Amino acid sequence: MKNYTTNVFWGPKNHGDFIKGLQQCCDTLDPMGIFIGDNMFTFKRNLSFLDDGPFMASVNTNAGEEKEKAIIWRTAVLLWAARNGLRRKGDFVECGTYKGTSARILCDALDFAHCDRSFHLYDAFDLPPEMEYLRGPSHGPDLYPAVVKRFAHFPNVHIHKGIIPDIFVREGVPDVISFLHIDMNNAHAELSALEFLFDRVVDGGMIILDDYGWINNKDQKIAEDNFFIKKGLHVLEIPTGQGLCLK
Fold first, then answer.
1. Distance between CA 101 and CA 47 in Å, rounded?
2. Which regions form coiled coils (predicted)?
3. DSSP 27-65
4. Does the pTM exceed 0.90?
5. What are the helix and strand counts (H, E) for the chain?
6. Does residue 36 sit in the same domain as residue 74?
7. How many domains does the chain have?
8. In the Cβ-directed half-sphere of 185, how many Cα atoms lie within 13 Å?
9. Cα-flanking dihedrals φ and ψ of residue 92, to 5°?
10. Which residues, given as ranges, of the chain have pLDDT below 70?
């Protein structure tokens, strides 16, 4: 049975000692279905996504950084939700694209260039001063053209540069959405996206909130819980740290 292990964790006081401790735990186990990474340690799991040929081929091609490899379970959740979206009318939307790695993994795994819908990717790419605290290593003036180039062979993938929700007004959003992924690490921005897009999501469509289950993003969870409760819905927190809502 396959295992999947990385050294990528957020929060340990002493990363080296933490990894050594995990290894000691593994030494007490049969090497069957172990997953280590992205703040998760599980064992005796099927890890079915490792047997998903199109998914793993896409991950191996597109996930170049260790962090991108470590969040493979999160990306598998996205693919599951996207496949559900293909069975319903509507386009795909991602709010918070960054380098476009997750979206590109989905596009390759789904052969999205030949799908009968569009994928709209929204991001600021080069953050304004007031959002400096959210800046990642790749944010800057070169990120947007790099992402555009990354999806150049997908005529039905559209890259939108701007601040949400202003970019929605300026460049538009799909009338019907079957898959919505939100990952902006900011409560105000994510709530603005939900308020603008929720009514466009079809019944049976999936909404994935990347930061929902992370304690450092508790303000996002609180804001989103309040939003969904008013809609008569509840968000499922899953072990990856994502939140899942089925409309």
1. 21
2. none
3. HTS-SSS-EEETTEEE-S---GGGG-HHHHHHHHHH--S
4. yes
5. 9, 10
6. no
7. 2
8. 13
9. -100, 145
10. 129, 132
